[in-house]
């Protein structure tokens, strides 16, 4: 895949501290690719910049964390303008999901690689707002919400692990009513994840077997309790990619989750609170550049 023009959107405040400008220049110097760059600011989001670039460049390359990546994907969704990901954040889950190298110089090489391909991936819509990775309620949401910036800057991804240990102990099961493609389930759970992507950002582990970002389906994964045995079974099932009775797993196009009281949840990087969450898949909505053999 050869591009003549690439526009970079760089978040200068994202997790990695490295001379990204000089890296881009070094890698693209002799490539024949004409490139430009815009920088996000606190009040000018990656989405604002991406929207203005639709139709004005052949490829938008985002350097930032999953927050920026989701913003750009949401802005470009359905526009036909493709995007590339240069992982600049802490976890970089979407890059891991797509097999994009974590190292900046290697990820930049993909932009000029003849074998690189565009992959058409699904997105989700949560109460009308597009998302790329997942919606988390319960333990998984608390884990992300409580891993603060300072800790992430100091120890990177380990911050999520440390906060996980704290939040798992305090988790209280909540009663939910789930409507999954029209079928109703009354369930008690300490964690519900509605996910588009399998990768969790921890090594190459997927949350459950069979999750695909291109299958036109969302995966609803429910953990009923936080007993040691259930947690071990859930972790074992992620490691070995097999099924377990500790975890309920549905695949669907549409799910509505109701609870009696407002629940905090996290949709990609955004924290919210609601009693009812309606989620549906938007199949084949954004083209993302992936390295050779990752399509
Ligand atoms: N110039 C800037 N100064 C400060 N914050 C910024 C700037 N540009 C963008 N942001 C903020 O950065 C956040 C998005 O960060 P992004 O997801 O790219 O990186 P990250 O936080 O390192 O990722 P991760 O979640 O993996 O740690 C948004 O909240 C956005 O408002």
Automatic annotation (TrEMBL):
Keywords assigned: Kinase, Transferase
Domain of life: Bacteria
Repeat recorded as keyword: no
Organism: Mucilaginibacter celer
GO molecular function terms listed in the Swiss-Prot or TrEMBL record: ATP binding; kinase activity; methylglyoxal synthase activity
Residue intervals passing through the bilayer: none
Domain annotation DAGKc: ranges: 1-130
PROSITE patterns in UniProt: DAGK
GO biological process, one term: methylglyoxal biosynthetic process
Source lineage: Bacteria, Pseudomonadati, Bacteroidota, Sphingobacteriia, Sphingobacteriales
GO cellular component term, pick one: cytosol
Coiled-coil stretches: none
Record protein name field: YegS/Rv2252/BmrU family lipid kinase
Presence of the UniProt keyword Lipid biosynthesis in the record: no
InterPro entries in alphabetical order: ATP-NAD_kinase_N (IPR017438), Diacylglycerol/lipid_kinase (IPR005218), Diacylglycerol_kinase_cat_dom (IPR001206), Methylgl_synth (IPR004363), NAD/diacylglycerol_kinase_sf (IPR016064), YegS/DAGK_C (IPR045540)
PANTHER family: METHYLGLYOXAL SYNTHASE (PTHR30492:SF0)
